[in-house]
Structure formats: structure tokens, C-alpha cells
Amino acid sequence: MFHQYISFITSIFINQISHITYHKIDEIVKMASQGTENGEFSFPKTPTKGRNGLPKIQTRGGKKEDDQICHDDSVPPVKAQTIDELHSLQKKRSVPNTPIKGETQPAFNAISEEGRQKQQLESISASLASLTRETGPKVVRGDPDRKTETPRAQVTHQHRHVHAPTLSTSDSALKFTHILYNLSPAELYEQAIKYEKGSFITSSGALATLSGAKTGRSPRDKRVVRDETTEDELWWGKGSPNIEMDEHTFLVNRERAVDYLCSLDKVYVNDQFLNWDPVHRIKVRIVSARAYHSLFMHNMCIRPTAEELEEFGTPDFTIYNAGMFPCNRYTHYMTSSTSIDLNLGRREMVILGTQYAGEMKKGLFGVMHYLMPKRQILSLHSGCNMGKDGDVALFFGLSGTGKTTLSTDHNRYLIGDDEHCWSENGVSNIEGGCYAKCIDLSKEKEPDIFNAIKFGTVMENVVFDEHTREVDYSDKSVTENTRAAYPIEYIPNAKIPCVGPHPKNVILLACDAFGVLPPVSKLNLAQTMYHFISGYTALVAGTEDGIKEPQATFSACFGAAFIMLHPTKYAAMLAEKMKKHGATGWLVNTGWSGGSYGSGKRIKLAYTRKMIDAIHSGSLLEAEYTKTEIFGLEIPTAIEGVPSEILDPANTWPDKKAHMDALTKLGGLFKKNFEVFLDYKIWN
């Protein structure tokens, strides 16, 4: 019987909770007392290093030595360093050219603003370096359309150019790549409207853009380099979102992306942070070809102050977004023209063949899912808010469960809506913004999101009136996945900085279309881990074509598409932190009662809010409880403002046999889903 199976798993969890050793999942609650190997920020080193630690691409054959660097040309390179110089070689000069005095001499001894700008460009040039050459591209700061001619190879206040001798020359090596560095939203608006077709200012002041052929993520085209380190650390195989690729293929795609970006007249560079906890924040650099992408990441990452930017230095992680350029389908592992490639050893991500900006956001989330557990920090796909007395609640839930609605509470401060870390210091938001769905958005239903759509906000793939520029949020002509990305401070009750103390409550949300889960139930640690790993909700007719009856869907840790390690590792860390800090787990059903979808009724939002309020206030801890069959959930007998008869699903079903059949069916689905996790060893 399924209830015996649950009881067995639960009894093991409860009996072993105080002895934390991390073995098989049936001992998962033995929390880690020893932690990971080290808590330092580190990456595996790659062999055969070239400039700035980048591995050289080597060639073999002929009479060349094995350690020679690949050259682009089979003939001696031209002497010109720029296209203008190349053109000038066509004509003989009648008089000598007067050299610029002091061109090779530094203008100052100590670091100055000019020197800092030069160092900044040197860092960016290194990021854009081809692996076949020892130097990065020539980069100059500023918009090329505002310059009358290519600047000379010198550092000036108008043009800051980093120049170093090259070992080989190609057409791309003759040109400057203009760097548009950490532009303001106003500047990015100008760039998008002038140069990117499909960019418009809406009536609310937001920037409307198009993401091209891809209007959502491409999980089947996302790959992770599998090397000696990630072989043992990451989750591979059945159920895993991690599709493997080798190091060589990654470097091929990286070269393709870098060559494309360096061929452009200008690229956008954002230097920003992840994680509001200053002790554990990560420096990220995003190199992109579109103003839309730059503004999106400006909103979604944490924006550095001028002082922080001066001290930014070398990034911890770099994204090369060449999404306007496809990958080569003949490249090994490629199955389409799209490829999103993550190399944790090189600290780099490459995007080819998709302009959907959400790939950058979720790609970095995956990076945090890898890096943070190394520091004994739990990364979470959750909403988070805080009461006026400092009580923090985490909200987990898949699409349609009400995570955004319930975590957005005018009586509480919003720490974040999607991605968080739980460290020894408490909780912190990973991001600096929100990425909200816009389909059917209204001021009445979601006033905070509606009012956040103003100047500075990026709107993806929305439809608007060609004359008034008013957005029609119900129009799905482009896609149903319309989105808005805006800084978190656009939400009136956002807590800035986005950090809080240790959570008091962990709320797991499920929209149960089978109608058998209680509206609210209290969980012990073992049950919290079980339902956290399961990540259950249900699809109903109308949400996807072909669905005639409720279909259970499971997403491990309520975000299986983004996690890097095995789900049990995150679950063990969650239970450890909950036990240490006294947090309580809750399962809240926002779905159906009195019958399954089609015969029962959706639980009223007003009732769900009363239950959440009782959780926040602590009054629900004082309630009397009874236990359900099959899942063994503890349900309260009374909650103020909620009809008592709906608290136990068995009371609301007129057909008791049909209720038990539905409950047993759902229990069987849980059991089948969980089997893949039973024999997994977390770590030794």
C-alpha cells in the first residue's frame, strides 16, 4: 500500500534526522555536518594556458611544431593595423607623417580615470579574445555612429583604445570593436529604437521588443560541458536537465560567438552582480549584440554603484550572447541552429541561435545552483517575503500555483519573486529585478506588476495599438509567453537591499486538479523534503492541447530545469537549514476541492490568503490537527475565516469511493515519480 511506503520513508527520515551524513535518499535527512570539500569560490583549472589563462587551440601536421598558434592566413599579414590604414596604403605619401609626441609614454604615474578606463577596456578585450590568437580585439569605448573617423592607436579622453602587437592579422583584426559599457536605460532606449527593428516605446513608457523566432527557453538545446570535475559533481542521466557536451565542442561554439561579436561595429557590455548578500555576491559580465539584451540584464542583475564599478576588475562569470547568429549544425552535439552552452570550468556561457533574453537569466541561475552549494549556501527557485516583525517566508510552486500572487502581499515586504539564496547570514535575492508574465495582466488583478511597467521596463513580444501604443495584454498573436522585466525597486513594498533573516516558514504550493490534497497541511522535515523533491502540480484541460483530464506533473525542487546537482542534495540542505533555524514546512493546495477538475470547485483565493495569513502570524501552529490517509498529512481542524468543512478533502466529496480512488491514484503517481531518486547517493 502507498501509505505504508510513505510511512516507511517518513520513519527513516524522522529517525535519522539528527545524524547528518548524506548517503542514499532513504537516509536523506541525515544532514551534512561536514559540508562540501571547501567553501571557497573556485573552478577547475584547464591545461595548456595562453593569454589570461585561456587555453590555446593547437594544430598538428606538416612541419609546424605542435605548440604553434593557429594563424588565420597562409601568407604574411598586411602591415596595416586598421581598415583606414589599409586604405591609405593604396597611395604613396609625398611627405613624412609626423608622429604623435609621447604616444608610447604614460601620461601619469599613478592610476587615473584615464588609466582606469584603459584597464577596463583591457579586461573587456581579454573577455573577447579569440582562442587562436594571443591578443584580444581592438576595442574602443563609445558609439561608432557618433565618431567621424576611426581613432588612432592611443588612449584619449574621447577614444580609449587598447593596442598590442598581434601574431597574425585578419580582416576582423584590422577594425575596432566599439564597446557600449553599462549604458543607462535612456541610452539603451535610443540604441534599441534606432537600430533594432520591432522596438517601440509603449504608452506607459516601457520599451516593447521582439525576441525573434524563439519566444521561450530552449531546454533541449542547453548543454553543459562534462569534464573530470562535473562528471562526479553534476546530476546526469534520467530526469536530469543537464545534456552533456565536450570541451572541444564548447570551444568551437565559443570561437563562433566571439568571432561574430568582434565582427560587429559595436557590442554591449554589462558588468553587474548576482546575490544581494555582499559576502557571497558574484561578478558577472554580459557581452551582447542587442540593446534589448543589455537593458534586460541591466534590470535583472544587481546594478553596481559607480564606486563598485571602479573596483569591478575581472568577472567571475561571462556570458557571450551571440543569439542573432546560429550555431553550425554540423558541429558535434548540435541538433538545431540553437545552442546554449555552459562551461563551469571556464566560467563561461555561450548563446547561439536564440534571442530570447530569458536564457541569460536562467543560465546564470543554473550557475548559482552550482556555485552556492559549494559554499554551503542553498540556492532556491522560490518567492520570498518578510513581515514587519522580520518573519520571512519562502514560497515554492510551479506555474499556475499562485506563487507570485501569494508572495506579493501589501502587508509584507517583497525580498524577491523568483531566485534566492539561504546562507549562514539569512536569505538574499539573487537578482536585481523581476521577470513577470504579462498575459491577461490587469491593474485590478496584479496592480504592482501593472504599475511597474513604465520607463526602464522591457516588454517582450507584446502586442500594442499602432497609434496609441497601448498594450493589449490579452493578445497572444506573437506568443502566450509575453513578459516584462523591471528593476525590483519598481515594486513599492520591495525591501532594499533584498536580504532578510532566516526563514520562519517554508510554503510548498500545489494546484491539485485531482482535488484530494488538503487546502493546507503542516509538514514534518521528512515530508517537506519528500514534497520538495517531488515538486508536484497538475495540468488541466485548456492549459495544453489534448488534455482531457488532470495530469500530474513533477519538477524536482520546483525548478528541475535549472538545477545542476542531484535534487536530493538541495533537499538535504533545505532540511538541515530548517532544522537548524526552526522553520516549519507547509503544503498548500490552491487547486480543487469537492471533486477533481470538472466536477469540484477551485479553492477560493480569499480562503487561501486566510490560511497564508495564519501561517505568517503563527496561529496555525497552535491549531488542533488530524491526519489524512495515504499521504499522512496533518490538517488543522479550524482556521479563522475559512469554512472548517473544506479543510479535510474527504468531507467535500459527495462520492467517498471516488475520493479514495482519486487519492490512491495520485499517491501511485507520486510513488512512481519518486522511484528514480531512491538509490541515489548524495555524497560520501
Automatic annotation (TrEMBL):
Residues 140-150 have a biased composition (Basic and acidic residues). It is found in: Cytoplasm. Residues 40-70, 128-167 are annotated as: Disordered. Its main location: cytoplasm. It is an enzyme of class 4 (lyase). The keyword ATP-binding applies. GO terms for molecular function: ATP binding; phosphoenolpyruvate carboxykinase (ATP) activity. One of its GO terms (cellular component) is cytosol. Pathway: Carbohydrate biosynthesis; gluconeogenesis. It catalyses: oxaloacetate + ATP = phosphoenolpyruvate + ADP + CO2. Gene3D superfamilies: 3.90.228.20, Phosphoenolpyruvate Carboxykinase, domain 1 (3.40.449.10), Phosphoenolpyruvate Carboxykinase, domain 2 (2.170.8.10). The keyword Lyase applies. Its EC number is 4.1.1.49. Keywords: ATP-binding, Cytoplasm, Lyase, Nucleotide-binding. One of its GO terms (biological process) is gluconeogenesis. It holds the Pfam family PEPCK_ATP. Belongs to the phosphoenolpyruvate carboxykinase (ATP) family. This is phosphoenolpyruvate carboxykinase (ATP). It comes from Lactuca virosa.
